[in-house]
# Entry
Amino acid sequence: MNVHDIIGGDGIEWRTSGALVPYPEALAWMEARALEIAKGNARECIWLLEHPPLYTSGTSADAAELLDDRFPVFAAGRGGRYTYHGPGQRIAYLMIDLNKRGRDVRRFVHAVEGWVIATLGDLGITAWRAPGRIGIWTSNGGQEAKIGAIGIRVRKWVSLHGFSVNIAPDLSHFGGIVPCGLAEFPVTSIAALANLAGMAAFDAALLVGLADFLAEIAANNLLEGRLKKS
# Structure
């Protein structure tokens, strides 16, 4: 596996894979690492990678939303419904210890969304949350479209899975599913928006925003500590 590791803010391992990583291999590695983090034997880790074309099904997936199983389908073990992963899409797996950063899953997910939105903003793309619709949204020719997906699982208060952002994938590959169960909304990408930012630019902007993301979670942990003492 072609992997580049650096230690990011707050002692988190920042891991980037250059080659496509098979989904079962990534899932096994992530789950093993999360277990070691929970035991206190490993650093937290943020892993950036791409997968070969595939579909994943979350715990709320409806079989009727798998329209064409042209690619392998994997049970992901995360929340949500069907999602596509493939080349040109940045996957970020987040193995973060919420025991030390605050046991508030909702706030953690909100912070992840904010991190992605801010990263896209740094690249000149206005993105937002949509009430009642999980994920990251933007405007594509005046029509609201999904540019990123969020799927988080927490085990022993360590997070698994994370988010995906469409940099320049083949958008026709999404046609085999109803993405996240939202048939009425299209999917878009940075490239489809005629933005020239590629994978490297996205990764760089994401790393710049890491400190703010960690500060958001740390603020939650600090508030919890004050409440316990009061």
